[in-house]
Amino acid sequence: MTVDLRTRYMGLDLANPVVAAASTLSSRIDNLKRLQDAGAAAVVFQSLFEEQIEHEEIQIHRVLEHGAESFAEATTYLPDLEEYNVGPDAYLRHLEASKRELEIPIMGSLNGVSTGGWVRYARLIQEAGADALELNIYYIAADPEETGEQVERRYLDLVRAVREAVTIPLAVKIGPFFSSIPNMAKRLVEAGADGLVLFNRFLQPDIDLDSLEPLPTLRLSTSDELRLPLRWIGILYGRIRASLAATTGCHTAEDALKLILAGADVTMMASALFRHGPEHVRTVVEGIAAWLEEREYHSVRQAKGSLAQINVPDPAAYARANYMEMLARFTSPYDWRAAPSEPRA
């Protein structure tokens, strides 16, 4: 039996559910070709950051306002972006060149929190040939005066603005820090999202005890981080009218299969590709096919969502019952229930 691995993501027909997530691997065409040859169904380009767009606009203004010192504060406000390997214009040229070289779909990516130059660059990414656009909203709500409603409005306004600017499929990559993820997911779709990517992996700072300064850190994900997107994809499947992509924690065929069974249309990976190289995609795709064939599934579509909350006998397993059951069952050598009985006097 030959298993049909095809899936559909935001209207795009893909050969299988394994997609290379946004990362610097996409900055070179040779890496993109390796990903394609290994079986990646699509690639999300590394993000074009809002700060890069702002930096370019400030540079333009500096030329126009030469000698006026109008933007002197920008030299300290913005980080030094001269060493970024892909500025806005170079990003678009690279996207155009990659589209000429590759056969698989390429999705652009914008990372930021405000409209600004986003709308303009959303259009330019579409004109450069992107098959879809991923809006990566990376916002830390650190202002105690800003309400949850204001934070959510920021997201929704941004999605509406970009949706009005482009006609290609639009995915929105969000974090898990909303008081009601299902409600926010529904509103994002109503604002124009064709797909949701769960979840953005917010990088956490450390503290350097020698310099006594906050220390930016980046650690690759592990399969242990799979459970968060797994739960929410399982809950959202069948309840919102949008494609679902899983990211963070997908490293193996087993990880991808769990996410597919929960309801993911595609599974995205980056950390695993940094660890094992682009050819790791082939191992994952072959592992998915072997598992499905062994259990007599005819296709990915048949398996997708079969263990989502709406399809399992015990829907509470995705909610509080799971939490309560695990805590009740867990024991350790230091638990009084595991200790030998004390002799009575």
Protein model, in words:
There is one protein chain. The chain is α/β, with parallel strands linked by helices and 345 residues long. It has a single domain (7-329), classed as TIM Barrel (Alpha-Beta Barrel), CATH 3.20.20. Helices cover 40% and strands 14% of the residues. The chain is built from 13 helices and 13 strands. The chain has helices at 29-38, 50-64, 74-77, 88-101, 118-127, 148-165, 181-191, 227-236, 253-262, 271-276, 280-294, 300-303, 320-329; strands spanning 7-9, 12-14, 18-20, 42-44, 48-49, 106-112, 132-137, 170-174, 195-198, 206-208, 213-215, 243-246, 266-269. Strands 3-4-6-7-8-9-12-13 form an eight-stranded parallel barrel, surrounded by eight helices. Strands 1-2 form a two-stranded antiparallel ribbon. A two-stranded antiparallel sheet has the order 10-11. The longest helix has 18 residues, at 148-165. It is globular, with a radius of gyration of 23 Å. The termini are far apart.
Short description:
This protein is of the alpha/beta class and 345 residues long. The protein has helices spanning 29-38, 50-64, 74-77, 88-101, 118-127, 148-165, 181-191, 227-236, 253-262, 271-276, 280-294, 300-303, 320-329, and strands at 7-9, 12-14, 18-20, 42-44, 48-49, 106-112, 132-137, 170-174, 195-198, 206-208, 213-215, 243-246, 266-269.
* Rg computed from alpha carbons, rounded to a whole number of angstroms: 23 Å
Mean pLDDT: 87
Q: Could you say which structural class the secondary elements and strand pairing correspond to? A: alpha/beta
Strand content: 5-15%
The H-level CATH homologous superfamily, spelled out, is Aldolase class I
Fold-level CATH name: TIM Barrel
What is the general shape?
A: globular
Spatially, the strands of the biggest sheet line up as: 3-4-6-7-8-9-12-13
The level of helicity is 25-40%
Number of helices: 13
Helix and strand succession? Answer: EEEHEEHHHEHEHEHEEEHEHEHHHH
Amino-to-carboxy terminus distance: 69 Å
Architecture, CATH level 2?
A: Alpha-Beta Barrel
Number of strands: 13
CATH level-1 class: Alpha Beta
Q: Which residue ranges are poorly predicted, with pLDDT under 50 across at least 5 consecutive positions?
A: 57-85
> How many domains make up the 3D coordinates?
1
Largest sheet: 8 strands, parallel, barrel
